[in-house]
Design brief:
Blueprint lengths: L4 H14 L1 E5 L5 E5 L17 H13 L3 E5 L10 H7 L1 H11 L4 E4 L10 H7 L9 E2 L1 E8 L2 E8 L6 H5 L1 H19 L10 H18 L2 E4 L6 E2 L2 E2 H18 L3 H17 L16 E3 L10 E7 L2 E7 L6 E8 H7 L1
Parallel strand pairs: 1-6, 2-3, 3-4, 4-5, 7-8, 8-11
Antiparallel strand pairs: 2-12, 6-7, 9-10, 12-13, 13-14
Helix pairs in contact: 1-8, 2-4, 9-10
């Protein structure tokens, strides 16, 4: 069954109108947004395990630099596991996140794989022992004001209104818990969701962008494990760079440019994306962002920083042990655009 874009749009409308609101100055804002950890039970089906050390290193950096931590859903993997087992296995990571909570700088949003946090009793039972009176939201709206201008940013997980992840999630959950998890543990095959399905990612990105365009607001999601910055994927940016370098190579050929082109083409092949995953918009507005995930198989994690008057797409590389900025723009630019 195909997704119904109208249902996704209505679900996002509902999330926007019911969201918790935070008013702040864009110059004083200091947030790091991570999503889609999928913390399990440290078995063969646990997608977070390769990223744990890298994630903890990133948290130490952001805690030291005075950031607020926003967890944008699917932090825990409850489709495959019970809350009791997951929370027991990752107490060290929870303690690292608690350092933000103790300073009033932790914000949590639930996704489809950790939607137990919709229920107050589940929060009290499994989170309350470490995070007393914590709130877990479906959505948060950041209201960034400068003079007469106000930019609204909706933060949601991004599964709202989708067929398998929202409307029929209970069926998907049963399949994952009792069938797919056992296959994944045996063969280390990642869950088949929008995270690794190009067509589903493309449809999801388009739906998120359409809502932001219609509302004239910025939306930040997770869900797909697929970073997007200013409505362009990382692959889009590589293609743009390739086009520029290839035109240069035609006029002033050089071995260095040829080597760079070859490396960029290799990157495109590695991430296995084609033109079908781009937005079907010739000149998209810079209103859609996606944080990517904290469950890449190579241990890398991606996220979004809102700090120093900027929004930045970042990657913490497990290989180089460094923080890399993949994209950056001024929040003032988004304020002026709106």
């Amino acid at each position: 069954m195909a997704e119904r874009p109208d249902r996704i749009q209505r679900a996002l409308d509902r999330s926007y109108h019911s969201a918790s609101r935070i008013q702040t100055d864009p110059d004083s804002l200091r947030w790091i947004i991570f999503s889609d950890h999928h913390r399990g039970t440290r078995d063969g089906a646990d997608d977070f395990a390769p990223c744990e050390k890298n994630y903890l290193k990133a948290l130490r950096h952001y805690e030291k630099e005075g950031y607020s931590l926003c967890l944008l859903g699917d932090v825990e993997e409850f489709w495959e596991n019970t809350p009791l087992h997951v929370m027991a296995k990752y107490r060290n990571v929870l303690q690292a996140e608690k350092s933000f909570f103790d300073k009033g700088r932790l914000h949590r949003i639930w996704g489809n794989h950790d939607d137990d946090w919709r229920v107050a009793g589940q929060i009290s039972r499994h989170l309350g022992w470490l995070f007393p009176k914590i709130n877990v939201h479906e959505g948060i709206v950041l209201e960034l004001s400068r003079g007469a201008k106000c930019l609204e940013i909706l933060l949601v997980h991004g599964h709202q209104g989708t067929l398998n992840s929202d409307r029929l999630a209970w069926i998907s959950r049963l399949f994952v818990r009792f069938i797919w998890r056992n296959i994944q543990r045996l063969f280390r095959v990642p869950l088949s969701t929008p995270a690794n399905n190009i067509k589903l990612k493309s449809a999801h990105d388009q739906a998120m962008y359409n809502w932001a365009d219609r509302q004239d607001k910025v939306i930040i999601c997770g869900h797909t494990h697929h970073p997007v910055f200013m409505s362009f994927t990382h692959a889009d940016r590589i293609r743009q760079e390739l086009t520029f370098l290839q035109s240069q190579q035609q006029t002033t050929p050089s071995e260095e440019t040829a080597a760079t082109i070859a490396e960029l083409e290799k990157k495109l092949l590695q991430i296995q994306l084609d033109e079908g995953e781009s937005l079907d918009v010739e000149h998209p507005k810079p209103f859609y962002f996606n944080s990517g995930c904290c469950s890449y198989g190579d241990g890398d994690i991606t996220g979004l920083e809102l700090a120093d008057g900027q929004i930045r797409l970042i990657k913490w590389s497990a290989k180089t042990k460094e923080r890399m900025v993949l994209g950056t723009t001024e929040l003032k630019y988004l304020l002026d655009y709106c």
